[in-house]
Specification:
disordered N terminus, six-stranded antiparallel sheet, Elongation Factor Tu (Ef-tu), domain 3, 12 strands, alpha+beta, two-stranded antiparallel sheet
């Protein structure tokens, strides 16, 4: 339901019944032909009044009931919206370089979350303990974000500390890597069928070319 009501709620503007009071301070009985009029249902005498007041009936009570229900529905939706905003504000800024957002509901709705596909190659082999990597490109890579480095032997996750001209500085490597090793921003595998985000698996493939005569 939208927070904007489809129909404006109309006020009933209730009025009190105002009784006539005699000089003696007592209610004045209603009479007809000199006889006191009695209520046919209760048998009690009826009294004169200056203002009849708004009658209580099912139509007016249902109108109030529907208004309360509609207001309650809007409040519940508003609370959910505020909660989402609170969560987003809590997340924003807490993950460097990622605007604080690291989750996806995977419900098909559009949001600012997207798979980061930044990828580059190491153009020179590196040894264990290396902190500066020469890469083919730094497009899509930003400081203080985590990347995965891998080749056909080893892999590890490191944080980029600085971006240069076709170089990146990272934490000291725990493994040595060959020329052509990959540096990638995300290894998330998205399963849209089961609405899940899983850790992707980096791997290399050997391709054999066979000539067909």
């Amino acid at each position: 339901m939208s927070l904007v009501a489809s129909n404006k709620y109309e006020l009933v503007k209730w009025k009190d019944r105002i009784w006539k009071v005699g000089l003696d301070g007592k209610l004045i009985p209603k009479t007809e032909n000199g006889q006191v009029v009695h209520n046919p249902l209760t048998g009690q005498p009826e009294y004169e009044y200056l203002e009849d007041g708004t009658r209580v009936n099912a139509k007016r009570l249902n109108h109030m009931d529907e208004g309360i229900y509609s207001a309650h529905d809007h409040i519940v939706e508003l609370q959910a919206m505020i909660r989402r905003m609170q969560i987003q504000m809590e997340l924003d800024g807490r993950v460097p370089g990622n605007s604080g957002t690291f989750s996806d509901t995977l419900d098909g709705s559009s949001n600012k979350i997207k798979l980061d596909t930044a990828l580059t190659d190491i153009i020179e082999a590196v040894a264990i303990g290396t902190t500066t990597l020469k890469v083919a490109s730094v497009d899509g890579l930003t400081p203080f974000t985590q990347v995965t480095i891998f080749d056909d032997v080893s892999k590890e996750d490191v944080v980029i500390t600085e971006i240069g001209t076709n170089t990146i500085k990272v934490q000291a490597l725990n493994n040595a890597y060959k020329k052509g090793a990959k540096v990638v921003r995300s290894n998330v595998s998205i399963d849209m069928v089961n609405a899940e985000m899983g850790v992707g698996v980096w791997q290399t493939y050997s391709v054999e070319l066979v000539e067909v005569v």
